[in-house]
Amino acid sequence: MEEISRAIRQEVGGEDIRLKFSVDRPTGQIVVKVIDGKDGKVIREIPPSELLALAKSMKEFEGLIFDEHV
């Protein structure tokens, strides 16, 4: 977990950040929000919300396209 924190801090170029981990219930994906420690604003969301929306819509078609979940 500390390795992930270091890599994200290096990527966003700041030391005063917080990481918030959660699970997107519709997709089951782990979501990491990179938050500015000074003002509490979300700097980056991994994966992006657009990608989660795409994954959710693909999951809705799962039963129509595939016979079973692998």
Structure report:
There is one protein chain. The protein has one domain (2-65). Helix content is 39%, strand content 30%. It has three helices and three strands, in the order H-E-E-E-H-H. It has a three-stranded antiparallel β-sheet, covered by helices on one side. A hairpin with a 4-residue loop joins strand 1 and strand 2 (29-36). The longest helix is centred in the last third of the chain and has 12 residues, at 49-60. The radius of gyration is 15 Å and the shape is elongated.
Radius of gyration: 15 Å
The helix/strand series, from N terminus to C terminus, equals HEEEHH
Major β-sheet, in short?
A: 3 strands, antiparallel
User: Structural class, from secondary structure content?
Assistant: alpha+beta
The number of distinct structural domains comes to: 1
Mean pLDDT: 81
Helicity range = 25-40%
Summarize the structure.
It is built from three helices and three strands. The protein has helices at residues 2-12, 49-60, 62-65; strands at 17-24, 29-36, 42-46. The radius of gyration is 15 Å and the shape is elongated.
